[in-house]
Amino acid sequence: MTQQSPITYADAGVDVEAGDKAVDLMKESVRRATRPEVLGGLGGFAGMFDASALQGMRRPVLATSTDGVGTKVAIAQAMDTHDTIGQDLVGMVVDDIVVCGAEPLFMTDYIATGKVVPERIAAIVAGIAKGCELAGVALVGGETAEHPGLLDPHEYDVAGAATGVVEHDAVLGPDRVVAGDAVLAFASSGLHSNGYSLVRRVIAAAGWELDRHVDELGRTLGEELLEPTRIYTRALLDLVRSAEVDVHALSHVTGGGLAANLARVMPSGTLARVDRSTWTPPAIFSLVGRLGSVPQSDLERTLNMGIGFVAALPQGDADAAIARSRAAGIDAWVLGEVSDAGTATTAPDSEVVQGAKGVDGGAVQVVGEYA
């Protein structure tokens, strides 16, 4: 038998030293994404968070969420720009927690890549840390895994999970929503992190390059597609805790679009009618529709169309809520109203969505034409 040369871990494609360098490069970013309750530092087997403050709560309820950013990572990889995708990850995870009225406390991340390039990993984590800073969330740990042979050297994917807390009697949801409530919209920063499989297919079919300057966007196509997901955490928690606003329910407009996500927080026996004429979707949405001849119904079921969050609250609180949101830098407006079921119209382009993602609740109808 011919003697085989020794095979090392590095020969198999895993560079432990590169992983260690990546950790060194990300340390400063992670230090900024903290809270006073965090115990220990970077490098432990587990992130630790002092939960003694929960002892002062009457009935603390923990809320948790996990997510990724989908195929938006393909745009980051194609542009070799990696310091924004982490903010997308944070937004997709922590703002799901805010929907029930909970304050996100801490987050962990996971990065899988074909080859650890320390500078690239550090840039991804810097984006995650920035997102955590914006949300007031502690980044207490993470993992970077090198998967040679499974992923190409330039490829990676990111995922994360977060935990938050809310008083039991302050949990938001369908049980609080009543006929007569106003439906408020909170503007998105763009595509956020959903529908990129459709978007990428459209631009590929059109033959457009990411470095193409698009006048109606005011920048290159790639720059528009990498616009980070808006993080609503602080602004919405301020709204929920405000004495002048009684928020009944929140909905994060992600995969499935406006109607399907709003339907998830509508109680049985109600209908939320929202009016397209109350807003004009940003240019990227009409551009995708035009380039790919995408039917409006498909656009609306896939993309957020310029609305990243929705709230249901008493009509009399709408003006105060809008003012607080705009003061926080997020445009908001009255989108529609909640009524009793059975009041749906038969107008064209006004399909009724009943429940979504396993939730058998109320209904949503989008009517009118975009402004």
UniProtKB/TrEMBL annotation:
Instruction: Quote the catalytic activity from the record.
Output: 2-formamido-N(1)-(5-O-phospho-beta-D-ribosyl)acetamidine + ATP = 5-amino-1-(5-phospho-beta-D-ribosyl)imidazole + ADP + phosphate + H(+)
Q: Name one Pfam family in it.
A: AIRS
Domain PurM-like C-terminal, first and last residues per copy: 179-342
> Which branch of life, at top level?
Bacteria
Give the UniProt keywords, A-Z: ATP-binding, Cytoplasm, Ligase, Nucleotide-binding, Purine biosynthesis
* One BP term from GO: adenine biosynthetic process
Which leading EC class covers this enzyme? ligase
Q: Which SUPFAM superfamilies match?
A: PurM C-terminal domain-like, PurM N-terminal domain-like
Cellular compartment(s): Cytoplasm
Pathway the protein contributes to: Purine metabolism; IMP biosynthesis via de novo pathway; 5-amino-1-(5-phospho-D-ribosyl)imidazole from N(2)-formyl-N(1)-(5-phospho-D-ribosyl)glycinamide: step 2/2
Query: What residues does the PurM-like N-terminal domain cover?
Result: 61-166
GO terms (molecular function) for this protein are: ATP binding; phosphoribosylamine-glycine ligase activity; phosphoribosylformylglycinamidine cyclo-ligase activity
Sorted alphabetically, which HAMAP family does this protein's record hold? AIRS
For this entry, the protein name equals Phosphoribosylformylglycinamidine cyclo-ligase
Which organism does this sequence originate in? Janibacter cremeus
Name the lineage.
Bacteria, Bacillati, Actinomycetota, Actinomycetes, Micrococcales
